[in-house]
């Protein structure tokens, strides 16, 4: 029995090792993914994002508890670009406080690495596939919503939960800029703090009404208030996707983002290392460097080849 | 006489409008670049980066003064992802304080926009080409060195100047991670502050000795101390590139980064909009979404087409 079989059969140590391989992205990891990917596609993938200090880890911990109480198994991938350990470690601690550390129905993985552009690493999507194929009912990807993080989570998740909290000043502006576009569900966390109602009201005003507008929920992950409603809303969002057939477009969007990420990674490798560049591309780049060809025309020629 | 001709002939308003077009990246801007790029390639492009608070704008302002005293014309592009205005505006103010606001030999442009991955926008490279073709002797690109900023500046500059300052705690770690790899020259700014010598010493230890190790200079942009030496070191770096022929590899690296950026931008546009996807790619993505093809194999097929 090999590592992939062991992992997918539920061996937790094998699972952890498999994710490490997939995250590393070398040929062993890529080969494993070739076998894993066709067995994935059943899990509900939920992205949880929001500004630093919004209480993402606490909310995810509370959600894990709620989902476990409902009999669902949960895999968590905590991506934290700023600190290699705090995200996942803090989350694991929080869930352990809930005495779930002996619970085989929960698997938590921290990931520090980010893609070369600051986006989600290719390994994140791979880790989602592993947990999905290993039969976790829900896979939660937690990312800090700074820079492109909020948008990237939409590249792996069926349901995007965006957290807000009172007292972050211009956070609504940030929301408008990018977060709201990808939010399927907005949670005003720390609802026990003053100003929570005002934040929710401002959000409702900014978002307007009608179809396609994400629900706005108030919650307090530390007291547990509203967590049940968040879990319900997540499930309800996924059921709507399934019922309307919109899930197919989500799957296509996720597939597109992952394939694009892989293509871009390989292109970057080739372009930055002259030895990895094909002779045709090397010639093009040389001509651009010498001003005999414009960057725009060189890009067009490369893309034309791609179309052919 | 059209806008491009006017701009390249030195009309400052035309220059400003032309950069706006190029920055916008629409077909008008792209067509202008087709004519501008072959006329570029003469300027010395210098990237100045470092952590927030390192005094980049002040140093750039002081460098502009020094270069002007030497009879060189200088174009500046200040890229500030965090605040749309502060970077360029602050810089312009600083240089105005030096009474250079009537000086046709200086052109300053602020750019807020970043590329979709948080890297330098495609428009930054375009703006460099415009200032280059408009005959500025030196083009300085100032970027905040957070995330990928420090690496991106290497994608447009012949000479990368990395700023450090005393009192930033773990900045040396940050330096080691990415900045030092691309630094051609390290400047410990605010050298009048306590701890500057220690920072320089630590850097020397981290960098080691010998060929390829960037010079480490102490400067105080506010008092002007050491600015002359920084300007000398910049010029000396470029002369070495020219003398050894290493400039050809720099030009190739810059060309590769710009073409890659354009290809990635177009790929992302195609992948994210089903209507912009070719039928072949749409089919591939559909198969991936339905788990009939793995993301890895889809990426391979796309890249194989690119090789063909």
Provide the descriptors you would attach to this structure in a database record.
homodimer, 308 residues, alpha/beta, 13 helices, globular
With strands numbered from the N-terminus, the spatial order across the biggest sheet of chain A is 3-2-4-1-5-6-7
Assembly state of the chains shown: homodimer
Distance between the termini of chain A: 43 Å
Rough shape of chain A? globular
> What average pLDDT do the residues of chain A reach?
85
Kindly report the greatest chain-chain contact and the residue count on each side: A-B, 57 and 57 residues
Radius of gyration of chain A: 21 Å
Q: What's the helix-strand series of chain A?
A: HHHEHEHEHEHEHEHEHHHH
Total helix count of chain A? 13
β content of chain A, as a range? 5-15%
Helix content of chain A: 40-55%
Low-confidence stretches of chain A: 82-88
Structural class of chain A: alpha/beta
Structural overview:
2 copies of one chain form a homodimer. With 308 residues, the first copy, chain A, is α/β, with parallel strands linked by helices. Chain A is 53% helix and 13% strand. The first copy, chain A, has a 7-stranded parallel sheet with strand order 3-2-4-1-5-6-7, with helices on both faces. The longest helix of chain A is centred in the last third of the chain and has 26 residues, at 247-272. Chain A starts with a helix and ends with a helix. Mean pLDDT of chain A is 85; it is low at 82-88. At the A-B interface, helix 3, helix 11, helix 12 and helix 13 of A face helix 3, helix 11, helix 12 and helix 13 of B.
């Amino acid at each position: 029995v090999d590592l992939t079989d062991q992992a997918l059969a539920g061996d937790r140590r094998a699972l952890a090792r498999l994710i490490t391989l997939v995250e590393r992205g070398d040929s062993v990891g890529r080969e494993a993914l070739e076998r894993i990917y066709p067995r994935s596609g059943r899990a509900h993938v939920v992205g949880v994002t929001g500004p630093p200090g919004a209480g993402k880890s606490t909310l995810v911990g509370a959600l894990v508890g709620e989902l476990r109480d409902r009999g669902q198994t949960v895999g968590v991938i905590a991506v934290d670009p700023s600190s290699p350990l705090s995200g996942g470690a803090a989350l694991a601690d929080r869930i352990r406080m809930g005495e779930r550390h002996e619970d085989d129905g929960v698997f938590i993985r921290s990931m520090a690495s980010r893609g070369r552009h600051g986006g989600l690493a290719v390994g994140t999507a791979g880790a989602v596939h592993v947990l999905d194929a290993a039969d976790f009912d829900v896979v939660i990807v937690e990312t800090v919503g700074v820079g492109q993080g909020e948008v990237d989570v939409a590249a792996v998740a069926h349901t995007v939960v965006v957290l807000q909290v009172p007292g972050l000043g211009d956070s609504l502006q940030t929301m408008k800029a990018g977060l709201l576009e990808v939010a399927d569900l907005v949670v005003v966390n720390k609802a026990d703090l003053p100003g929570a109602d005002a934040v929710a009201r401002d959000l409702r005003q900014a978002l307007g009404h009608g179809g396609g507008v994400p629900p706005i929920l108030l919650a307090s992950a530390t007291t547990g208030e509203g967590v049940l409603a968040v879990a319900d809303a997540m499930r309800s969002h996924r059921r709507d996707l399934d019922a309307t057939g919109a899930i197919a477009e989500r799957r296509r969007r996720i597939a597109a983002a992952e394939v694009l990420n892989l293509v871009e990674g390989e292109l970057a490798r080739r372009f930055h290392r002259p030895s990895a560049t094909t002779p045709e591309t090397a010639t093009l780049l040389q001509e651009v460097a010498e001003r005999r060809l414009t960057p725009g025309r060189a890009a067009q020629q490369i893309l034309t080849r791609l179309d052919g």
